[in-house]
Amino acid sequence: MGLPHRLGVPPMNPGAHDLIESQFQEFYPTLYRYAKIALDNPDWAEDVVQDVFHFALQNAETFNQHPNPRGWLMQTLKNKTKECKRQRRKLADMEQ
Question: What SS3 class is residue 59?
């Protein structure tokens, strides 16, 4: 598995992309497990984790300079998980 499609990602130097790629390879399994438990849905979990890394690509300069990349990814995942839950609740309410 590789990084999400680069749609909407600003140009960056190859080293920045390589660093995010290495973070993806290292942290994807952990982030996915967290999201799968938090969302109780493997498909939603995969989408949310992909969104996290897409966001990292969009904010590569900030992400790559952060002193705690794992913490940055985890906090972003928590925010995106909450956002996903809110969206799913809205959809469920609209269906009723």
Answer: coil
